[in-house]
Amino acid sequence: MEGEVWIGIAFVTKHRLMLSFVIGAREASLAEPLIAKVEQRLRAGSWPIWVSDGLDAYGEALQRRHSFLQHYPRTGKPGRPCRPQMVVRPELKYGQVVKQRDEKHRVIGICKRSRYGDVPLEKISTVYIERQNLTLRHDNRRLTRKTIAFSKKFTGLEAQMFLYQGYYNLVRPHRALRLPISGVMNNHKKWQPRTPALAAGLSDHNWSMREIMSTKIYINH
Predict the structure, then answer these.
(1) pTM of the predicted protein model
(2) Domain ranges of the chain
(3) Where residue 84 falls among pLDDT bands split at 50, 70, 90?
(4) Beta-sheet pairing, 93-101 with 107-116
């Protein structure tokens, strides 16, 4: 693929689940479709805490999707109409992690801020998604920088990302999600490996690559 390619990823921190992704030519263009895809997968009526970096596109996209016209009572001169204003829904919670850099683009400070809603500062973090981006590049050769193993077409990269999403969520056990098993053998704990899908209750077992490549999925529209 010619030019620069951006991949926006939605990540559930608790279960280390790769919820959705969007591929685009500009980072700012990913916010709206990525948020829309994520909200399709959320439980009806749920309001998660959204966290992103300092890119304003995510906050603007959330504002457009969750705002309504608020009519205020008339004040001032009689007969003068009151102009309604767009107000963000109070259920929306969104925080940002803004990195401050010097002239050499080195990080010299990090600032956390709550944009919408009352979000505790300890809940505002991008550490897990940044680690996931590293894992994504490490596992996917097409995303390694300065190589010839790139995708020549958008459809090829998209198909690879769908395959990786299934592999990461269903097949690849995550060390942070393992559970201790009662009993000790040779002074070492025994652990039950778990994938993000198993930890999130979306599966009852860890899948194999053979299983994920041979299982037929039927979706009713």
Answers:
(1) 0.83
(2) 6-214
(3) confident
(4) antiparallel
